[in-house]
Amino acid sequence: MSAPELRATVSLAAIFALRMLGLFMIMPVFSVYAKTIPGGDNLLLVGVALGAYGVTQSLLYIFYGWLSDKVGRKPVIAAGLVIFAIGSFVAAFGHDITWIIIGRVIQGMGAVSSAVLAFIADLTAEEHRTKAMAMVGGSIGMSFAVAIVGAPIVFHWVGMSGLFTLVGVFSILAVGVVLWVVPDAPKPVHVRAPFAEVLHNVELLRLNFGVLVLHATQTALFLVVPRLLVDAGLPVKSHWMIYLPVMGLAFVLMVPAIIAAEKRGKMKAVLVSAIGLILIGQLLLGSLSHTLTIVASVLFIYFLGFNILEASQPSLVSKLAPGARKGAATGVYNTTQSIGLALGGVVGGWLLKHGGASTVFYTCSGLVLCWLIIAAYMKAPPKRA
Fold first, then answer.
1. Full-model pTM
2. What is the CATH number of the domain that holds 312?
């Protein structure tokens, strides 16, 4: 990659990571915090609060991508980040579950991911685009790891209001990166996105279903796991003691899997194995007792699979949707991802309220099993030249 391409990719990946960091930092602590606020005893509303931003994201991703084609990437991305910051500040000053839901809905209205990915496509050559998308996928995985480990510590220091405020500040910082760090690009020429062709591509449909299940089960998992850790005797401020070694080891072992997928042409085997790890993790969480040792061990299995998929699937979408279909494919992929986040929060909260933790984990296991069967029939992507 040339220096301008590298600068563009790194800066836009950083914007993506800052925004996702803000979203991810809420997940490990919110279900425990919700017990302390009016309305937080309603598990369905807690799930709605976790997944609400996914609803508005899913409705606006495609619109933001289209608008960025019309008026330019930078104005749309900057405006979306400001809206996201406003939602964060609304949630920060909301002291009951209703206002936090409103803040999360406004956060979701800053759905700039499709415009960011389109901007990367504008600023990188075709032969480097897969690497650029892989860097974005890696940045998302890294922000997830930082959020999971750091959120309990930051929550202990500043509380949930401070955490939401910090998320808003991250978004404002990202606006500065957009305006002064990301290189300028010519105004893109609007081309009608061939959504019909994208929706007829069976391999892309497999990935879309997969990312929906991945993020639905992730959101549902974080409705339950923080409560399990507290019930096992570990206060929220010490949850990092579980997440840090689990995420660290999962990241170390993810690297050879990604290398095998990308450089040795083992993408299908790696993806199917990663889905299998997520299935095993969900089944074990549903069937075993929830001591700290068992929960930590099972989370390692789950996060190893999760990190591999989070880092590799965006790259695979880019590979399977050549030429003019990349923007449309990415928009649909991001939309289904957001639908998964919303479903995981709402349905997970309902299941937790009416059936308990095991019901959540077994339902997630059923979804992942369907995904595993669908993924088993995917065509192996072509090996790198």
1. 0.81
2. 1.20.1250.20
